[in-house]
Amino acid sequence: ALLLMLLFYSGFSVAVWGFAGAKSRLVDSLITLFYMSNWARALGIHAPNELGHTWSLSIEEQFYAIWPPLLLVLLRKAPTRLTIALIALALAVSAWMLRWYLGMAGATTTRLFNGLDTRADALMIGCMLGILLSSNLIPRKAEGAMSRILSIASVVSLSVLVGIAFIEHWWDPVMYYWLLFVVELLTAILIFDCFTNPPSIVRIIVSFQPLVWIGVISYGLYLWHYPIFTLMREAGYDWKQIITAGTLLTFVIAILSYFLLERPFLKLKKRLEFRPDHL
Fold it and tell me: 0.90 exceeded by the pTM?
């Protein structure tokens, strides 16, 4: 899906601006293809414009290149699964502390926002939660008082996260000193609640079928929305046209991408994948 988007974007750029005019955009495509757009942005080397949103995909792929081999080593060498979970927590706190230190030392918010090293805390908190759940170190089903407490905690967490999303901005230094870490912990509460607590209000909300369907095609929505919106803005469309026509076009492309490309690939992957009994 990413390759298809990049091919279309590159071809569109050449068709509209010619090879000379599209040179910068072709470089953007190459940076994105090799999952380096986050570092291009963080270090100010050649920050992609219409493909700038792929910073998060780059961080994800870099994480996949590092964590699985490290986890295999830990599974062989660590005395217990709890030890691995604590290592994941230590790595998360280390990333947070590094972000805080670099911010105090004068690093730009762009550097803090885009670096794998300064955003790894969210990933490692997720890893810690996954290890704890898969190893039965924490209950996989909330019952009684725990269920009620978790339901309340998840509603509060969701409310706080929505408030932060409306109030805070990515360039606010407060985000990097402590607020991002709070966001990550609140998100972990939501995930834990949805995974272990069937009566959860948040679980009921995210199980709403239209939201589930959006989740199914979310990768295509993620890939296509930003270049479409950005190109429309650069072409002079107003925000109402961008929101309406841009959103409609994004959904149409994402749906086509899912049925024609992603779903067949996922079916093939499912037939070929290895299913371990445990971590």
Answer: no
Q: Determine the Cα angle at 126 with ends 163 and 112, to 5°.
A: 65
Per domain, the residue ranges of the chain are 1-34, 208-279
Measured in whole angstroms, the distance separating CA 169 from the mean position of its chain's CA atoms is: 17
Extract the tokens encoding 145: 């008082």
Give, in degrees to the nearest 5, the angle at Cα 64 between 62 and 66. Answer: 75
3-state SS assignment for residue 22: coil
* Cα(267)–Cα(279) distance, integer angstroms: 23
pLDDT per residue as tens digits for the range 199-244: 888 989 989 999 999 999 999 999 999 999 999 999 999 999 999 9
Q: Percent helix, strand, coil in the chain (nearest 5)?
A: 80, 0, 20
At 263, the pLDDT band (50, 70, 90 cuts) reads confident
Dihedral, CA of residue 88, residue 92, residue 98 and residue 103, to nearest 10? 170
CA–centroid distance for 26 within its chain: 24
With tokens 């750029």, the residue in question is 13
